[in-house]
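Section 5.1 Outputs to date
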Amino acid sequence: MDFLLTDEQKILEESIKKFAKNEIQPLVKESDQKGEWPEELTKKLGEMGLLGITIPPEYSGAGYSNVDYVIILEELSKVDPSVGLVVAAHNSLCSNHINLFGSQEQKKKYLTRLALGKTLGAWGLTEAGAGSDAAALKTQAVKKGDTWILNGSKLFITNGSLAEILVIMAVTGSEKGRKGISSFIVEKGTEGFTVGKKEEKLGIRAADTAELIFEDVKLPAENLIGEEGKGYRQAMGILDGGRISIAAFALGIAAGALEVALKYSKERVQFDQPISNFQAIQWMLADGYTELDAARLLTYRAAFLEDKGKRVPRESAMAKLYASELAVRASSDAVQILGGYGFSKEYPVEKFYRDSKLATIGEGTSEIQRWIIAQQVLKS
């Protein structure tokens, strides 16, 4: 078992680090304060291949592995978790759903646009009454001839107001629950599709999060992804992989916060010595970096197994649970190490602190991750 990055992965890591420093860092404060996505960044992400990370080259994707994807997301999220989340939602949810379950015609029509950064993609499962209980959807699609009529709404959708290509789950059958859910591709500008409320959030403020509203939206039959009634099963498979991306996003938050805290602890002098000399500070750093390595190994393992074509519900849930809760702990400790400065917008740890909480909620709460892990353990 090899725990070392390849030479190619080291080069990739350095290139993303440089890109994040030069192209993302200058935008962080303003985009966070305004709560707006810097749209000029979409084109730059596309040019870097970061909007088609695991998409095959035949659809203009970069064709990277899932381990490569983890490396990329960690480096982006170290600088701005909002960018990490936007990239994760675009790649892991929207694009990956079409890539794994779409027809050749759908892939040719949509994946190239997504991979090149012509537009952002979004994925709509969550509703006001369907969060952790993902099968409790109310959005419906009724077939009339060769057309599906879509009615309903979605909530807390990342990239919701910016995306031009969206994957939406809806109830299509008279059967109740999971077997009556299907997935569809919806394009921005389709009559009856509007964007509702844009969320004002605690953290991840630059990432667009919006409500989607569908009123008698007419979709051609070819916009159905895969077979009717298979949407819930597709979505659960997508979330298994998506949780790896949220784990990587959380790794970036934890690593970014710890790096700032480490540097500050060496520079801050109290009682005539750097505060890094004090045991209380050393133990926070020791715990943080030990847990960061543990979280990274869990995340790499899940990504490695997915690259091998394995199903990873247990491994991805473990990685997401551990990394997301670490992000909250590490960013909290970083604020504590910086003291008053940790509470100031002059230093980035207050933003890491605000951003970190989403990791324990998005793509399945920590409670849902524990339930998944328990079910897998009990079955084994």
